[in-house]
Amino acid sequence: MSAAEDGAAGAEVTVSVNGNRTLGQLVATATAEMSALVHDEIALAKAELRRDAKKAAAGGGAITVAGVFALFSLPVLSFAAAYGIHNLGLGLAWSFLIVGGAFLLLAALLAALALAKFKKVKPPERSMSSAKQTAAVLQTVKPHPRPLTDKSAGDSSAVARSSA
Questions:
Q1: Angle at Cα 127 formed by Cα 126 and Cα 133, nearest 5°?
Q2: Which contiguous run of DSSP H or E holds residue 16?
Q3: What is the residue-averaged pLDDT of the chain?
Q4: pLDDT reported for residue 105
Q5: Residue 39 class from Cβ within 10 Å (0-12 exposed, 13-18 middle, 19+ buried)?
Q6: How open is the CA angle 51-54-57, to the nearest 5 degrees?
Q7: For residue 158, is pLDDT > 80?
Q8: By the 8 A CB rule, do 50 and 56 touch?
Q9: Of 64, 94, 72, 66, the residue nearest 81 (C-alpha)
Q10: What is the 3-state secondary structure (H, E, C) of 80-144?
């Protein structure tokens, strides 16, 4: 321990700056102001996140309602398409088969697109190699033997400790 540390640990440092405040008072003030600044920044971040979370919840609710309306409109639009084809002179059964076939074709195209995207997904190679390297290193590591002393069994110093 240095002489400066001995003085700081034993008593307050009485160096005055401009004859007004001691160095200890300046450090205490700076620490308190820094702590207040950090607390204010955290409070500001919480307020911003709370506001953004409310906006995100409102947006999520709106998109959910829009999805429900789109889902409910699908049968209505399917019937409209089938009856529209029927009005062109085709039989009603054929009109519904054409609309159903169009939906199956659309489903097949989307499934093919999804499969193409899934095939592009690769395993996390860097993470796997890093884990394998770590496992290989840990398998070769042997614990460090700690010799026990021949002192009495009741002596607490006879126990091998990692920090002596």
A1: 90
A2: strand 16-17
A3: 80
A4: 96
A5: exposed
A6: 150
A7: no
A8: no
A9: 94
A10: HHHHHHHHCCCCHHHHHHHHHHHHHHHHHHHHHHHHHHHHCCCCCHHHHHHHHHHHHHHHHCCCC
